[in-house]
Amino acid sequence: MQIVLFEPEIPPNTGNIARLCAATATRLNLIEPLGFRLENRYLKRAGLDYWPNVDMHVYANWQAFADRSDRKADERWVMVSSKKRPQSLPLQDFAFNPTDCLVFGPETRGLPDWVLDFSPAHVRVPMFPQGVRSLNLSTCAGIVLYTALIALGIPSEWC
């Protein structure tokens, strides 16, 4: 399982997601341009002292991520979107694979259509139909990642 943040904009969100990745031994992929520098104090503060435990990789653009040499043959990109696309499934109805990359878009605009079109695997986090358009990126990443890990069977040594 991996998390991919496409052009993240808000340092504390990325820091929180980095901490989530450290807690779950999940690789974190950042796709540039980033809305901040990796030395940002808010990014570092949100990740606390867990940065040595974060398997983080930074890519210059989507193509560099897609063409990376360590990509697994059975890797699937799972696009997480608040947009209701015809192929988007509610999170609880999606069948996750251990080699999935959970792809999240920038906080202010989400994944662009051209990135969404790279994969037929789309999920959305169900929300009450009135009042709220979206969730915080780090909250959404936690919900999606733990739902996937639970579906795949969290190792008993974690409990």
CATH class value: Alpha Beta
Helix-strand pattern: EHEHEHEEEHEH
Q: Tell me the domain tally.
A: 1
Low-confidence stretches: none
Which CATH-level-2 architecture? 3-Layer(aba) Sandwich
Please identify which CATH superfamily we are dealing with: SPOUT methyltransferase, trefoil knot domain
> Terminal Cα separation, in Å?
19 Å
Strand order across the biggest sheet? 3-2-1-6-4-7-5
From the structure above, extract its key features:
Alpha/beta knot; 28% helix; 7 strands; 5 helices; alpha/beta; 159 residues; 7-stranded parallel beta sheet
Task: Please tell me about this protein's structure.
- The chain has 159 residues and is α/β, with parallel strands linked by helices.
- The protein has one domain (2-158): Alpha/beta knot (3-Layer(aba) Sandwich), CATH 3.40.1280.
- The chain is built from 5 helices and 7 strands, in the order βαβαβαβββαβα.
- It has helices spanning 11-24, 41-46, 62-66, 113-116, 137-152; strands at 2-6, 27-31, 56-59, 76-80, 88-90, 100-104, 122-124.
- The protein has a 7-stranded parallel beta sheet with strand order 3-2-1-6-4-7-5.
- Strand 1, helix 1 (11-24) and strand 2 form a beta-alpha-beta unit.
- Helix 1 packs parallel to helix 5.
- The longest helix is centred in the last third of the chain and has 16 residues, at 137-152.
- The radius of gyration is 15 Å and the shape is globular.
- The mean pLDDT is 89.
